[in-house]
Amino acid sequence: MANNNEQGKGAGSSQKAGESGNPKGTGKRGFAAMNEEQQREIASKGGQAAHQKGTAHEFDSEEARRAGQKGGEAVSRNRVHMAEIGRKGGESRQSAQRANESRSSSAARSGSTEQQAKASRQGSKDEGDKGQGQG
């Protein structure tokens, strides 16, 4: 057995590392080496067993609120991240405001053909009333 350890330090270890593609020879083993589907299946069994045994942890609303608050505080400490969020919000609000302004100004300028016809008829009536009232 001592001979194998000495051999592991020499040429034998570099050969194994070359085979796994990892120079340190620390490839994934066990649970980490399994594909995602196998990992989920095993984890699911563990969760089911904990519930059956009665040892599974379930958040109550107060505990969930505290956990969410703690996560929010941690995120808000990241100044760069918060600045980026604020910048995106400002850009979004500004672009929405510009879109609303362009819609309202183009609607005021052009209007629908029905609105233009109605305005034209209204204008004609007003001119006729003015002529009758003065005479």
Task: Please describe what this structure looks like.
This protein is mainly α and 135 residues long. It has helices spanning 2-9, 11-20, 36-53, 61-76, 79-109, 113-134. The protein is elongated. The termini are far apart.
Compute the CA-based radius of gyration. 37 Å
Helix percent band: over 70%
Total of DSSP H or I helical runs spanning 4+ residues: 6
Structural class: mainly alpha
Give unreliable regions as ranges: 1-20
Separation, N- and C-terminal Cα atoms: 125 Å
User: Strand content of the residues, in percent?
Assistant: under 5%
Task: Give the total of beta strands.
Answer: 0
Largest sheet: none
User: What would the average pLDDT be, to the nearest integer?
Assistant: 75
* Series of H and E elements: HHHHHH
**Judging from the principal axes of the Cα atoms, what is the shape?**
elongated
Features:
135 residues, 6 helices
